[in-house]
Design goal:
Structural class: alpha+beta
Low-confidence stretches: none
Strand content: 35-45%
Number of helices: 5
Helix content: 25-40%
Number of strands: 9
Largest sheet: 8 strands, antiparallel, barrel
Radius of gyration: 17 Å
Strand order of the largest sheet: 1-5-4-3-2-6-7-8
Distance between the termini: 25 Å
Order of helices and strands: EHEEEEHEEEHHEH
């Protein structure tokens, strides 16, 4: 993504039947792009909030991700609402440098967060990138995204909303998004603290992604 582009994205929850229905539709009438097996470290400042409303004014969404065994650091900037337009910057790093960069983030004050695994099927359908996301040990989401310029964001939002209506799916409102995020974030098994845990401990636990 170039610096003058923004990501217009809508996120919503679907059940398994809708997941399979959309997957069949996109495979028939869309263009398959890729499958992503991803491990995400989602960072928070100082502590993991019990409710996202505690950090509603925090514009920084910092993540370390490994997608199909390729690591990167991702910074998303802007309000996270379920249908949003945010700037996104990603930095690819080498596998042998993962531990060094995680230590750098920890020393900068980013060491607490939530780690979770997803498998995502990505399609292009009617000019929109649709991702069908299976969240391990949780459920299913969809994401609908257009990369555009800031002055075209409203037009992109309208395109996505119209298509979601046709498909019979609905994006999260702020309350719905917070409810899902809170359920994931408050799962003690998914939380990490890199001042108390070693990187090797987490690497062993999720070794299939490395």
């Amino acid at each position: 993504m170039s610096l003058n582009q923004i990501e217009v994205e809508f996120i919503g929850e679907i059940d398994k039947n809708k997941f399979l229905e959309l997957k069949n539709l996109f495979e028939r009438e869309g263009k398959f792009r890729k499958t992503k097996e991803r491990l995400s470290f989602m960072y928070f400042r100082n502590k993991i909030p019990k409710d996202l409303s505690e950090i509603k004014d925090e514009p920084i969404d910092l993540r370390f991700r490994i997608t199909n065994k390729i690591p990167e650091i991702v910074l998303k900037y802007g309000a996270f609402t379920g249908n949003h337009a945010r700037k996104e910057i990603s930095i690819n790093i080498k596998n042998e440098e993962i531990e060094k960069y995680l230590e750098l983030l920890a020393l900068l004050g980013w060491y607490i967060g939530v780690i979770y695994a997803v498998k995502t099927y990505v399609y292009e359908y009617k000019g929109i990138e649709f991702s069908l996301v299976e969240i391990k040990d949780y459920g299913y989401n969809f994401e609908a995204e257009i990369l555009t310029r800031e002055n075209e964001a409203d037009k992109a939002k309208k395109r996505i909303i119209n298509e979601l209506n046709v498909l019979g799916i609905k994006s999260f409102d702020e309350e719905g998004l917070n409810k899902q995020c809170n359920a994931i974030n408050n799962n003690k098994k998914l939380q990490f603290d890199l001042l108390k845990q070693s990187f090797n401990e987490l690497k062993t636990k999720f070794e299939e992604f490395f």
